[in-house]
## 1
Amino acid sequence: MKIKTSLFKYVAPDAPQELKIKVISGAEPAGGLEPEDRVTALFVLSHDHNAAVAGPAKSAFTDLSNDILTEALGGSLDPLVIKTVVSARKDSEALLTLAALNPAVDDATLCWIAENCPEDTLQVMAEDREQFVARAGFMDAVRKNPSAAALLIERLEGKAAAAQPAGANDGAPAAPAKLDEDEKKILRKASSNRAMEESKNIFQIVSKLSVSQKVKLALSGNKSARELLVKESNKLVCSGVLKNPRITEDEILKLAVTKGTSEDILRHIAKGREWLKNYSIRSALVTNPKTPTTISTRVMESLNDADVLKLSRSKNIPVALSTAAKRRIDAKAKKK
């Protein structure tokens, strides 16, 4: 595998063991490594001839956060490293999608993703079908995927058109699927915290990206990117924001409270078990008029009696929800 010259001095077979241990621990001089370089360094060191280096490196690789792996997959990685990340994090839809979109992914890894990934990941690949269907074994792998609907397979084969959301492109021509070097730099900068905060024309940058590029940014971008992309009309893009490992409970709460949040986003939030542990998020979902009644009624059962009483008297929620709240209040009153 190819290793950057700047990184090789840390991981070379004859590099001092003390230096390798520092790299593994994240201490200087390697503390400033980019995520893709840190992931690569740990991968290489996990195969070191010295067990005192390889063992800790394997543990450190296993313990890498999804946040770091997300950033790394947005950069330049060796196919072997991508394969190892996919093997280690098979249950992360965001990482599988980013791995599939990485130009360096090998055919075998891409086919494994195509055969085992959720439907949304296949939908993202369908946006730039030309670069995927030409890969050896790709379509055979898609056909084996139990999540691949017949219409989606036809779309990947070029037999069915995409269902384009209203206003998805605002009349603008679609951006090219493949990024040239300048576009890659723009996308990379838009994913970094500092560049995003300093940029005054992020809207113009995002408007030039294709759907798959927007999904990639939604999955890996910072707060500024997420706040912009969650408003996209394309479901793949806005749902990608909610799969971003960096997204915080405060951001989820803001979406749950906001009356303008789409029903699709609210449904997605309601599926997040970790998010629903937050009482404020559950309460916001219940009181948001756009939350489907089947969801708000179910979530209401976890609210305290005082809040349910308020719901039973509220005129700002669906009648079915206030009626359900009244039934719960009456049922508790009869037990006393």
## 2
Amino acid sequence: MVTCVRYCSTARDKFEGYLDQMGIDLEGRILDVACGPVSLACLYDDVCGHDNSPAFVEHLVERGIPARLADITELDYPSESFSYVVSLNPPMKPFRSRGDIRAGVRRFVEEMLRIARERVIIRSGPMMELLPPEWDHLVERRGKNYVVYRAGGSGSGPLSPLSEPPNLASGCRS
């Protein structure tokens, strides 16, 4: 867990309210997608950041937080490699820039469900109307601006077949 007081105070202010609203407490390995410069690592021990900003990733790494520089639409982590995959306020631009925004959001959710063992948490008002209905049976909780999906290989129902991604050469440990 990160110990920088000012940095962690910002993270607590930002994240504790979100998690309380969802009624969730995270435990285990966490992938923080579109984490920005402030990560869930201030609240939890085993967090890996994922962001497309070199400055944000550098900021995290300087604080000892494993982080990976990549677009949020490129979640090529091994299947079930994190207990939780969390994206709090992901930007919509990566989905818009690829044309079909619904297909992009569908692929994003699909990848998050593949990577997570326990739950997928998305907090994003703009994304709520774009979430794919084929995984509504996995919804554990839903609010105006968030959704919590049950994940994991057993009991979550079939997902579209995906090829297994390559091992990571750098970034977050797998």
